[in-house]
Amino acid sequence: MANRTVKDAQSIKGTNPQYLIEKITRTRIYESKYWKEQCFALTAELVVDRAMELRYVGGVYGGNVKPTPFLCLLLKMLQIQPEKDIVIYFITQQDYKYTRALGAIYLRLTGSSMDCYKYLEPLLLDYRKIRVMDKDGAFQLSHMDEFIDGLLHEERMCDIILPRIQKRQVLEETNQLEPRVSALDDDLEEMETSDEDEDFDKKVIEDVKPPSPDRRTSHRDWDKPKRSPSPRYRRPSPHRSRDIRDHHREVPSHDHHRDRRRSRSRERHRHRESQREREREKRRSHKYDENDDRHHHHHHHKSKKAKREKDSSREDPEIRLANEQRARLGLAPLRP
């Protein structure tokens, strides 16, 4: 009795709603511990509380084929067949992403093609991460938009064969569904406008940019107006006479510039030679001054020595004899 569908339930796709899940998988769900403990006597209001407790998405896993709580709650929703408003609440709420995934897969199983495109396509803008359990019981990282895209285009999700729905192109041709507006259209338009603006700016810069100078012109000549054509090739003007045209200043030739450079290099060479000559003269004068100082010092020393000898010759003979005797004794000499 606990595994039967409610009496007033409507048939989906011409069959019992629970039969949308394969019999082997249903049997595994009926025998699971989660189904017996958490899904017994659940109502539409209590399913919401159980859905908020979900922490991952998945089908069956392990060697003994155990169903996940996500799959058990999906079968319970097929059994009690909640109202459409509750399913839409599951899909539109923002706080619980696994509750949204549960409502999306239930709507994909039971809803029409129009309802699937109407309520599931807006969920493609949900880029939140979700955990998915594979058949080995390991967790993998995915995103909500990938899960919704799989519901719309894949044939099997969470170990459940999805019913076929009409292609969107067919519904658009029959005017049952409006053409889809991609969220990337605005970004593409902004990129195109930015590219056009950049091309326009580059074109304006190229028009305003001065011409590149050649070898004979410098950057100072960019702002100067171009020279008038040579009198030889210029058309005669009635307002100017031939004498005035012949007196135009000629442009100096390349040989003229080369002679000027040579003359400047010669002047620099002469200036350097003159500096070197002045340095040699300074060194010579400094050397002569040192020699004079040495000669003066030697002469002064000789004059002092001669003065001492002259003073010693003028000493008294008695003092000189006394000094000689004191010198023999090692005493200091007497002074006059």
List the helices and strands and how they pair.
Elements: H1 23-31, H2 33-38, H3 44-52, E1 57-58, E2 60-61, E3 66-67, H4 69-80, H5 84-92, H6 97-110, H7 113-120, E4 129-133, E5 139-143, H8 144-153, E6 156-157, E7 160-161, H9 168-173, H10 185-208, H11 242-246, H12 254-313, H13 317-329
Parallel strand pairs: 1-4
Antiparallel strand pairs: 2-3, 4-5, 6-7
Helix pairs in contact: 3-4, 4-6, 5-6, 6-8
Biased composition (Acidic residues): 184-199
Protein name: Pre-mRNA-splicing factor 38
Region (Disordered): 181-336
Structural class: mainly alpha
Shape: elongated
Widest sheet, order of strands: 1-4-5
Overall number of strands: 7
Span of the ends, CA to CA: 157 Å
The H/E string reads: HHHEEEHHHHEEHEEHHHHH
Q: What count of helical segments does DSSP give?
A: 13
What does this structure look like?
With 336 residues, this protein is mainly α. Among the domains are: 17-173, no CATH class; 307-336, no CATH class. It is 55% helix and 6% strand. It has 13 helices and 7 strands. It has helices at residues 23-31, 33-38, 44-52, 69-80, 84-92, 97-110, 113-120, 144-153, 168-173, 185-208, 242-246, 254-313, 317-329; strands at 57-58, 60-61, 66-67, 129-133, 139-143, 156-157, 160-161. The strands form 3 sheets. Strands 1-4-5 form a 3-stranded mixed sheet. Strands 2-3 form a two-stranded antiparallel ribbon. Strand 6 and strand 7 (160-161) form a beta hairpin.
